[in-house]
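BACKBONE GEOMETRY TOKENS
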Amino acid sequence: MAISEQTAADITLGYLRRTERILPHDIGVAATRFQRALAQVVGAALKPFDLTPAEYGIFDHVHSNPGVSNAELARYLLITPQALGRMSTRLQKRGYIRRAPAKGGRREPIEVTEEGLELLQRIEPLVDTALGTLLENLEAADISVLFRTLTTAVDSVSSHKSETQFV
């Protein structure tokens, strides 16, 4: 059940009266808590399939963006190319993704295999249910604002990649 707008306003005003403003630290703590809750619920949904949320992120993005390059995928997921290589090798050994042989020293884009697609189709409803649990107290408009806000913030960091090292 979503909290009423008045209750949300009262909570926000009460918080702002105590602190006078929301500090960047407060946003960082809230974002970290959200990320941990997200990893917890998605991780639980993926555990029976022996997949991590990061591996699912590879699967999902490659499926949604056929032909995405390895560099683009690593940047999108905010991981190093080396971390992408380790995770994609694990998925490849399990038969869920494939790469065409390298041409001219460059790796070919990752593709989801038929077996991987079947697994993805089984997993997606479970991940959606898990995410629904995390977001169940938010109204649709709040979820839309949350998505846009998170995307904008991450895109801002991604555009400053020379100043930031992603692990």
Q: What stands out?
A: Residues 36-136 form a domain with the Arc Repressor Mutant, subunit A fold (CATH 1.10.10.10). The mean pLDDT is 84. The helical segments are 5-19, 24-46, 53-64, 70-77, 81-93, 114-135, 140-158. The radius of gyration is 19 Å.
